[in-house]
């Protein structure tokens, strides 16, 4: 609205000269100056709000770069020569810092688990946000990630230990049954001893090898190449981070489990509140006796129709598919009867 009003600034000034009654209510030059400054700030907040309130993407790795940019913008506005902008930014900065303390580490870890960036976003933004102690802040994030990895590795090792213990038990039973067989020969015994000797040799020689965790392997590997022409865009909808982890998960099994849990964290409650708002419009006082299945069908159908309108699939095609399903249900019912 402010951007539209600024386009007609000269028209307002001319009308002020022509119409005397408009003189007392017309915007002054100071008002126009404030409107121009606020429009720039509000335009940035509009883009941030659109990102955080989106419901078609839910992975938290999308928000770290935007949150860092917002932090830096607020800091610049606090030092602005414009008293209105400075006062507004100081009050907003107090609230944002509380939010930043609660979410910055989660956002940072999520960006590390994005194979397109890994540590690159931290390397770029942290020197700007924390000049002088950016390395300490990055070490704090890595310590949190390592503690998280160790906790997941403990559970992963315990589940693997149960599996390996069952295998070992079966192997022992097989060896006992083989040993008790009358057909056991001295050649088999020598083969078993050589195999045990090889195992002992491999264990002794591997003690000097440096074993890297899959977290270290993931961080040292090259980043996933960014799609040509898309630029450095965290909100590139063509990249499916869960699909990437599903494909490369066997290479980094523990990190893949962490990514599955961390990336699914909601950055805001907009998506959840949107679902409840939709259900409130569906289940009103006139339709409060519907079955849960009917309510689910109505909400899902509404979501599918809206998705079809936004995508290349036409609404007519979707309606034809629904009519086809209904006819199939009628045919099935008639056969049963």
TrEMBL record:
Q: Which residues form the hAT-like transposase RNase-H fold domain?
A: 53-152
Q: Name one GO molecular function term.
A: DNA binding
Q: Which residues form the HAT C-terminal dimerisation domain?
A: 214-305
Tell me which SUPFAM superfamilies the record gives. Answer: Ribonuclease H-like
Note one Pfam family from the annotation: Dimer_Tnp_hAT
The signal sequence is none
What name does this protein carry? HAT C-terminal dimerisation domain-containing protein
Which organism encodes this protein?
Papaver somniferum
